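Customer escalation, tier 2.

The customer says the design service returned an amino acid string that "doesn't look like it belongs to this structure." They asked us to rerun it and document both sides in this ticket. The original structure tokens are below, unchanged.
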């Protein structure tokens, strides 16, 4: 089994994690291939240079590292096992304490590959010619730079105008990205396998403007009508470009998909309860009972 490894070098203790991973690989007969940035501290293993040759990809970090790993695969249908070294991690499959168990289950095929929809994103110049292209697993955001001014955006789907949004920007998200910037901007949480395209304005000027969920077949186009001379396009929070008036951002479902490893016995709602504290009322009531039971509180 050939497993690629992508990691965030900014995490404390990463060297120890790589050592543990190397010991596991030898025991499980796994051949590891490290991205060049990690290969400098894991030189006894292969360099990751051909994603299509992998049986799986392991990401060590948070959601950002997994997003970077998905982009490195460039559409290859390779399942990604995310090991969370940080705090939140909606996309990752397990935490660092479960590294050994997770890799063992991956090696014996005890997992499900959950297919996640992605977006094709194209920046078109004023002449209508494509000047840049990306694919997004989470979202694409068109937003203002450092100026405290609203942006007026013409938003359309399949050539039909939806509305002109006056806002700080707009988030166009996949269901996977619904728990990222989209959630912070007030957008809905969408079950990750329910394919759809979510439009969420950022700090809209009018309260009547609300998030919108479109079918996956829609092609969304964004144009800036007024606002700062130069806007920014950010894809998955990691790559992007500048954007000017008269240009068009075209967004549609991609033919490529990303395969996220999920283990039997885990669920989306369990992650939401854990990550978003959906069980907080129970915890609050338990704390209240403890406080009421103290003699000084009676």
């Amino acid at each position: 089994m050939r497993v690629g490894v992508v990691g965030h070098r900014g995490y404390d203790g990463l060297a120890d994690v790589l050592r543990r991973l190397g010991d596991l690989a030898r025991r499980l007969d796994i051949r590891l291939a490290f991205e060049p940035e990690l290969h400098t501290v894991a030189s006894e293993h292969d360099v990751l240079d051909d994603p299509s040759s992998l049986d799986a990809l392991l990401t060590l970090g948070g959601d950002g590292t997994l997003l970077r790993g998905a982009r490195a695969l460039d559409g290859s249908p390779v399942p990604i096992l995310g090991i969370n070294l940080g705090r939140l991690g909606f996309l990752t499959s397990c935490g660092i304490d479960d590294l050994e168990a997770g890799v063992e289950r991956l090696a014996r095929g005890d997992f499900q590959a959950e297919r996640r929809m992605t977006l094709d994103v194209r920046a078109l110049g004023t002449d209508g010619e494509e000047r840049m292209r990306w694919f997004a697993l989470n979202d694409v955001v068109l937003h203002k730079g450092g100026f405290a001014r609203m942006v007026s955006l013409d938003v359309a789907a399949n050539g039909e105008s939806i509305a002109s949004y006056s806002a700080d920007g707009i988030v166009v998200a996949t269901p996977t990205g619904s728990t990222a910037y989209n959630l912070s901007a007030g957008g809905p949480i969408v079950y990750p396998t329910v394919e759809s395209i979510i439009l969420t304005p950022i700090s809209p000027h009018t309260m009547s403007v609300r998030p919108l969920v479109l079918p996956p077949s829609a092609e969304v186009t964004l144009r800036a009508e007024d606002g700062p001379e130069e806007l920014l396009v950010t894809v998955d929070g990691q790559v992007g470009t500048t954007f000017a008036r008269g240009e068009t951002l075209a967004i549609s479902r991609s033919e490529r998909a990303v395969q996220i490893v999920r283990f039997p016995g885990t669920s989306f709602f369990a992650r939401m309860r854990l990550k978003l504290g959906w069980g907080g009322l129970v915890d609050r009531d338990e704390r209240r009972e403890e406080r009421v039971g103290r003699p000084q509180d009676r």
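Tier 2 assessment: The sequence is consistent with the input. The longest strand covers residues 248-262. Residues 14-28 form the longest helix (15 residues). Sent an explanation to the customer and offered a walkthrough call.
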